[in-house]
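So, can you check?
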Amino acid sequence: MNTLVRLVTPLAIGAALAGCAPPQTEKAVVIEDRVHAVSPSASAFKAGPLTGTLTDLKVIERVEQGTDRVDTPAKLNAQLKLENPSRDQTVRVIGGRLLFIDYRGEAIPLATGRTESTFTWSSSRSATERLDPGMNETQAIDVNFPVIALKDNNLKEIRVELTYIPSAFAQNTVGFKATVNVPAAAANADRPPSGQQ
């Protein structure tokens, strides 16, 4: 019995000490942004009554450092500036989408499960997303980018489709010729007698 106690005691103490030892910390996973330049990095366009400029264009994907495992698939980031140069038309901007076109002129598809590259316009000046004549607004754009375009390097062009509602802003003035037919007696009644004018 003594021998059994002598064997069990060191095992129990060893197990207790092992339980009290600080756990081995796993190396923290570091996620980093991998930035791909877009050329040109800025582009101007016209959409109906609006003019627009996309600037600071870049594609960003988030990857695990060391393994290159993709944490967040590629997204296109840009600043979109819209301006209403019209003198008499206000425009309510709803949103839009970006299409990525390959060298065959076809849209490059996004991977299964990724949503379309759409955005909603939100005005900082107005709750109605309205651009009155002479106004301009800038908004950050962050939309899904087709990963296959990075692998195959087959992007030829980016198309912007805007959704907006134009409406009249100025009031129109219309004039027309008119005369009033007044009977001669009534016309003479309002005139002062001759020589008293």
In short: The longest helix spans residues 2-20. The chain has one domain: 30-168.
